[in-house]
Every structure is written in structure tokens, then in C-alpha cells.
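Quick question: what would this complex look like in 3D?
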Amino acid sequence: MLKLEQVSKTYGNKSEKAVDNISFQVYPGEIFGFVGPNGAGKTTTIKMIVSLLAPNSGKIIINGIDNQENILEAKKQFSYVPDNPELFEKIKGIEYLKFMADVYEVPVAARQQLIEKYLDVFEIKEVVNDPIGSYSHGMKQKLALVGALIHDPQLFVLDEPMVGLDPKASFELKKIMREHCDRGRSVFFSTHVLDVAEKICDRIAIIKKGKIIEVGTMAEIREKAGSQESLENIFLELTE
Amino acid sequence: MKEIMGLTKLFINESWGFSKFLYNRTNNKKAFYKQLVPMIIVPIALIPAFFMYVSFNIALYAGLRMINQTSVFLSVGYILTIALIIIFGIMYILSEFYFSKNIEELIPLPILPRNIIIAKFLSILVFEYAFTALIFVPSLIIYGVGEGMGFVYACLSLLMFLTVPVLPLALLTVLIMLIMQSASIKGRQDMLRIIFAFLGIALIMSVQVWFGNQMGNANNVDFQNLMNNLLKNNESLLNTIGYFVPTSLLLAWTLNKITFMSLVWAASSVAINIIAFALMVLVGKRFYIKSIVRGKIIKKGKRLSQIETQKALGKKSHGVMAIFFMDLRLLLRTPIYFFNNVSVFIIAPACLLISLSFIKLTPEDFNSIRNFYTEMPILVNFMLIAFFIFLGATSAATATTFSREGKASWLTRMIPVSSKDQIIGRTGVAVIIESLGIIFTLVGVYFYIPLTLLSLVLTVVLGIFGSLPILLFGLFMDMNRPLLDWDNPQKAVKNNMNVVITLFVGIAYIGLLLAVSGLLGYFINPWLGYGLFSVISGIMTLTFYKIIDRRLAVKLLNFE
């Protein structure tokens, strides 16, 4: 579903690589967790996947489509919710959702059904006619999640999705992520909450200073680390 | 005092982005040069305009000297400066006190609210001093040199220069704070900001109306008597102006003739400014902080039923329409964008018509205008086309289209919308608001010249068609140099060099094109003129469209 091949990215200072020659794959039906310390390159990697940044080298293939060569088609394959979703403050929630449904060409019946469903799940039905500027951080995140789920994407990309969500919304999101993968689609998300990653991810990649230092299932990571400890302990050992 | 200075430096740094500029110098050379080049080019580009302004001032002084009225010279410069301070001050004050998010970070800190208010005021004052230096200092120098003034005049000039922006800015801040905290405007703050901006313009137009009336009345009095009066009493004009702006008298009494009383008047002027400043601090402490901690009040929509939700989600729209409506909504609902990008289409035709309304036309004059149009329709048509294109160039709707989205631009960059749809949707918004200006203008022009249907069609079609290359050039500029990192929307437009570049390039291009097409149409054949205009506009539109279409998708990847 998602394949990164030797992807690198530098910002202004060319000698420092934010992402350094990373490669990994996310398979269909898989929840893939992406963990690492602050500044390790998680958000940069995610932004390259969702076409918000161009890599300096390497390839990113989404559902068989190169996101550098066929940008528009690649964009149709995924949806993305950033860690701090800045949305248009002067727009009403419902207008935002219509906009998302239009640009992803969601048929009328499907958009009405899915939006109704997710507005209920995330409990923002009552505020959907208010300007986004009046929303709290969590409400904005919920609206961004509904907007991202409208077109039932092949790949669902989330940057720190649990930050700002209340416990119920967090629980519902984990359920949606699992159901999404059960239908053969994939979820790729970054998190600092290692307990969550350990519980819901099929596979995990650990990134440190722009390099992938470990990829695999929890069992594989434990085996390589020679330890039966929690992901948190292994993470601390690996990233020290 | 140390805290106030620290906060002032912080606010100025935040407004100008000095820290980021210095950071980029060592870490991101490309971004550094992007910031540096306009900082050098824009002042150089403005030198001719400044030179013209100074020349105008010298001519004004010479003219006033001939009619023995030099005493009014400084007052004229003072009033002009104050009027401009008020117009620009409205947006600066709203921006610093109400749009900026730093206040929410500062309130929880152990800082005296008074110090925050003073520092915010001082940070605006610094900009206004730079502005006053350009507008008012030439008047002070010209008068001083012309009247052979000495050292005391120079010292008092400096003192008066320091006081000029304080009083209008302090009173304006007080007024804005009082209105913004009013309970009756809960949830209507956006609308209020637009009203404020229009009030500024209304003020200027009122001044124009007043001068127009005075000029009109002047026709009815004996001109010889008026001149005699002016020549006998060298303060008659000053007294008239002083009646409307009393503080201009204080300035004139301080600087026109240097006597002991000049010191007294200067001290009075300083005292008035101190009182205004204290009043601003007092009102700020009483109302400003309170209005912030009361929380942001946004008017909420009504709860939607299932049927209403489904209706609101509506039928499926094309990507072009999705982009078009999103851009249009942002433009109309964000006060600063509305004022900068849309209101020009209401204000410019209104100014033009008000100016025309002061020209007293007799039925013979009307006939002459109509005859001129009948004999040379091509000139009138091209003048209208030029005005319509000018409206398009000044709106900057496309030159700030990506910048206006700011940090939320991730959304429009991530969605699967083709470059073609992005270009058409965003340019469509600019065309729609330009059409608004065209309609207003045509309605006004109709009172003077009953345009034929052919003229109407030609001017509207070619006006819009001719502005497309400039609109697309604006889009091209914003695609290449979007200004996304801002904390208040004012910066997306006011700090955006794309606006200035598009305006200058657009006007130069269209001036050249209209001159060539107009001359060809006038001397050889009108249809040849219109034809050449259409062909060149078509080629330029297509060229820019192709360039943007090819580059946009890649550019969207490199906005950060």
C-alpha cells in the first residue's frame, strides 16, 4: 500500500539530513505505527508521503502510484490529518465537509451517509453549522478526521492523532482505524503514546535522527532487542 | 521601563520577523535572499515617488509664498500626515491589539497589563514615526530653509515631530477599545472591523467633499476680494484650517515664528499628547484587557436537522467550484481580506464619481462630452478598459490567494485538485469581484455618457479579458513566493511583496499594451486596435496559464 525507497530530505542546511535514506513498506490491511523522539523526522516523513514536501531523493509509492510522478492520482489514494489541524477559521464545519466531499468527488448518497455517521461518532453534530474559529483544538481535530474519512481512503495517514482527543473520541478513532484495515485498507500514524502503538499496531518503525533503526511486529522488535519488555522500554534503550 | 522596552522590542520583532530573518541568514540562504531582495528593491523603487512628493511640497511652499500664506504650509503637511496616520492606524491598532495572538500568551505571565498596553502602543508608534518622517519631515525642512530658521526651530521641529503621531493614534486607540468592548456587538466583531475600515475611507472622502464644496463656493465670491484678504492677512487660511483641526494651530504657533511663546505652545502640545497617551493607557487598563479575558465571541450557527445537513452538503460540485467558493468565502468573511481585496471595487468607482460630481457641468458641457464620445468612441472605450484593468490589478485577489490561506494551506495543497481547477477557481474569484467594480463604474458613467451596447460589450469583455494576464501573473507570483507564516491575516496582504510587484508589473504592461492598441485603433482602424489588444491579451493569458499549469503541482510540494 505504501512503499518508501531510500527517501532523504534536507532543509536549509544541506549537511544535516532531516530524513536520511529511509525505506520501509506498509502492507494492505495493516496499522503501521511510526515512533521516534522529537525532531527524529516523523513529521517530515509524513509530509513527504502526503505531498506537502518534496523529498531530495528516493521514491514514495502509494497504492502503486509514484507520488512525485503522478501527484494528483497519488493524492486520491490517501487522506491525512496533521497533529495540529489548522483549518479555515471563517468557514463553517459543514462547508468544510462539503468542500472535502467535493474535491474527493464523493457521491451525494455516500457523503451524506458517511458524514452523518462520523458526526455522530465524534459527537460534533451540534456544532457543525458553527464557524471553525469557534471550535476547540479537539473539535477541530474531530472535524479534520470526519473530513479525512469522507472518501474512505486506501491509506489513512495521521500525525499524532490521539493528542487533543477526549478518551471517547480516542477510543472511537482506534476502532475506526482497525475497521478500516479490516476492509483491506491501511493506516499509517505517528505517535508518542507507545502503549497505544504497542496495542493497536500490526507493525512499527522506530526512527532516530532521520534513520530507521527498527521495523517489524512487536514480536520481531522484541526478538531483535533480545528482550520481552514493553515497547516503551525497548524504545528508550534503542533511542538513548 | 525595562519591561516595556523588552515587550516593545518583542512586538516589533514579531511584526517584522527580524529573528527569522537572522535565522535564515545562517540556516536558509534561499529564504534569506527572498526576504532581503524586496527590502532593497522596494525602497529604491519608491525613491522617484518620494522625490515627486518633495518637489510637490516645494512647489506648494512657493505658491503659498506668492499669496502671502506660508503660515499654512506646516499645517497642511500636518493634516495630511494625521489623515494618513488615522487611515493606516485603524488597521495597525486592530492588528496589534485584537488580531495578534501574543496577548493570550502574555496575560498569564506576571506582567503589568499597563506595560503590555504601552508596549503595544509603542510598537505601532515606531511604524508611524517612520511614516511621519517620510511625510512630514520634508515639510519641516522646506519651511525651515525657506524662512531662514535657525537652531531653535530645528530643536522645536524635532520635538513637534515626536508629538505628531501620538495624539491621533492614542485617541484612535481609545475609540477602538471602547467600541470593541461594547456588549452590543457580541459576535459581530468581524463586521465591526470592516465598518472601521470604511469609516477611515469615509473620513477621507468627507475631507474631499468639504474641499470640493469650498472650491465650489469660492466660485460665487468675488475672487479679487478673496485674494486681497489673503494677501492682507497672512493667517486667514491658517485660521480656517485651524478651525477644523485645532492642534494644527498649536503646531503653527510653535514653529511659524520662533519667539518665547513658541516654547509655551510646544509645552502645551507635549502636555496634550501626554494626556492623550495617559487616557489611552487608562482606557486600555479598564476595557482592553477585560475584552480579551472575556474570551472570543463568535456568532454561532443554528443547529442543523438531518434534512438541513443533507441540504447543506448539497449536490456534488466540480473541483473548480469547490476551490472558487472556498476562496470567495475566505475573502468575504475575513475583514482584512475583504477590505484590501474587495472594497477597492466599491471605493475606487465611488471616489471617481464623487470627484466628477464636483465638476459643475452645464448642459453644453454634457453635450460636449457626448459629442466627444460620438466622434471618438475608441478613446472612451480604451479609457474604460484601462480603468477596469486597473481595478483588477489593484485587488491583489490572485497575488495573495495562497498567502491568505496561511498555515491552513496544507489542506488545499494536499487535496487532489488539478492545477487547472486551482487556476480557474482562484482566478474566477478575482474576475467576479472585478466585475463588481465594473458594474459600479458603468452605472456611474451612464449619468455622463450613455454608452452604446457595442461600447458596453467591448469594454466589459476586453476589460476582463485584458486583466486576465495580470491576474494570472499575480497567481504566478504567489505560487512562487507565498507568504504563509503569519500570525494575523493583515500580514498576508500588507507584508506581501507579491501585491506590489503585481501592481507595478501589471500597470506597466497594460499601459504599454493600451498605448499601442489605442494608437493603432485611433490612427488606422478601431477594430485593428481592439483586435491587437485581444490577440496580445490572449497570448499572454495562455502563456501564463500554461506556465502555472505546468509548475503548480510541483510548487505546492515546496511551499515550506
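Answer marked as accepted. Chain B has two domains: 2-293, 322-557.
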